[in-house]
């Protein structure tokens, strides 16, 4: 609160304590980018903190940790893991995307 003269404290303005949304972004997009693990991973790639291949590995880990997958029998999980790993390594479309990202 700001104090001004004999009138006492003035009430806070509506904007005090509110972060400004970058121009061109909606509030929803900003919140989603802060909480969406895939968006966070994309920012890490852009910042050079992880390579695109490392990001694919992390995406596979995220998929394997999903409740619907985590509850599968171990043999099914192993088969799914092998299929995702093979896709990441052998699929020409994925390879092209990774090459484009650097």
Descriptive key words:
6% strand, single chain, 102 residues, 6 helices, mainly alpha, two-stranded antiparallel sheet
What does this 3D model show about the protein?
The chain has 102 residues and is mainly alpha-helical. It is built from six helices and two strands; from the N terminus they run ββαααααα. The protein has helices at 27-35, 37-47, 52-65, 67-70, 74-90, 92-101; strands spanning 2-4, 8-10. The chain has a two-stranded antiparallel sheet with strand order 1-2. Strand 1 and strand 2 form a beta hairpin. Helix 1 packs across helix 2 (37-47), helix 2 (37-47) packs antiparallel against helix 3 and helix 3 packs antiparallel against helix 5 (74-90). It starts with a strand and ends with a helix.
